[in-house]
Amino acid sequence: MRIDRLRIFDVGLPLVHGFETSSHRKTSLDHLLVEATAADGTVGWGEVASPADPYYGSETTETAWTIAVRYLVPAVLGTEWETPADLEQSWARIRGHEFAKAGFSIAAWDLHSRATGQSLAVALGGTRTTVTAGVSLGIEPSIDALLTQVERQVAAGYGRVKLKIAPGWDAAPVAAVRAAHPDLDLHVDANGAYPDTAESLEVFRALDGERLTMIEQPFAPRDFVAHARLQAQLATPLCLDESIVDLADLGTMLALDAGRVLNIKVSRMGGLTAARRAHDVARESGVPVWCGGMHEFGVGRAANVALSSLPGFTLPSDVSGSDKYYARDVIVPPVVARGGRVPVPTSPGLGHDVDVDWIIENTSRRFDTAA
Ligand code: OSB
Ligand code: MG
């Protein structure tokens, strides 16, 4: 296989409901969509789901654009490859920039699975025909507003809800949601917002009594030791997200018992090959995994659905239906969840058509090059 043409679209879409985390609030998203055309005319799509600002990780839409245009495109264009892992070798010497790499990795996997006539899920080794989806809810202006959001998603059929927490928005809203929904599969995500202090420990002890499935990323990404110390004092499993960028990080988490659940994000790990490897290692180690989201448009969302069909993804993934985020998605049909479950497509590649007209209509800048 050889990619002879690459187009990159910088696409902005408004969110149907604003989303606030411990670091900031957003009402629209700007992701890069990568279209890779092979020598035989087969087309694959990928998505760079980097946030616009460097608050989740160090990347931004702008850095991803620069790395894509200056380094990834020249590495990929005209290179001969058999498997996506081969192609990924062409950019292996670029350090970091996992979100940018992930967009090209997804496009390579889409191309590869289309060329072999397989669904992306089957090409990755997926075994499920449907995946369980959860929703992630941001920080709301009041506990009442949060309860309304939870109610809406439970009514839409979702059985797992994750709540964003931050210092000052933690034990009280979580207790209110738990009281209103005693049997809900509930978990919290701090996005690393807590300092490693006695005061924080009090908050986590309170949350430990709320029957949460997990507490996600309480401390700063690189502080494995703080996570290990906290895990030893809680019954609730800790889940690591931002901390785990490569397999060495996963090794550290396992060696220190710094977390007992893994959130695998395709973007954070630099693509589908790395995400699958993390799944394999976690599975061998008995660590349950789920697929985290970055509010992906349909291309990245479909890749997350395919990945979530692997056998180790035993917890609900952040693959809620497109309609939770976007009034009109960039794929047709959009990702649809019914009763909290999303069917895994069986047609080749990502299993959805890409709505190029809608992409172009929402594109602020574009890059186009041929070998
Ligand atoms: O930590 O999972 C996170 C969105 C932006 C940055 C970080 C996170 C999130 C989400 C998205 O929670 C959930 C989704 O895509 O459904
Ligand atoms: Mg998270």
From TrEMBL:
UniProt-listed Enzyme Commission number(s): 4.2.1.113
Entry cofactors: a divalent metal cation
Annotated InterPro entries: Enolase-like_C_sf, Enolase-like_N, Enolase_C-like, Mandelate_racemase_C, Mandelate_racemase_N_dom, OSBS/NAAAR
Molecular function terms from GO: O-succinylbenzoate synthase activity
Alphabetical list of Gene3D superfamilies matching this protein: Enolase-like C-terminal domain (3.20.20.120), Enolase-like, N-terminal domain (3.30.390.10)
Keyword set, alphabetical order: Lyase, Magnesium, Metal-binding
Broad EC category: lyase
Record domain Mandelate racemase/muconate lactonizing enzyme C-terminal: where: 143-237
Keyword Metal-binding on entry: yes
Superkingdom of the organism of origin: Bacteria
NCBIfam families: menC_lowGC_arch
Protein name: o-succinylbenzoate synthase
Source species of the chain: Microbacterium pullorum
Encoding gene per record: menC
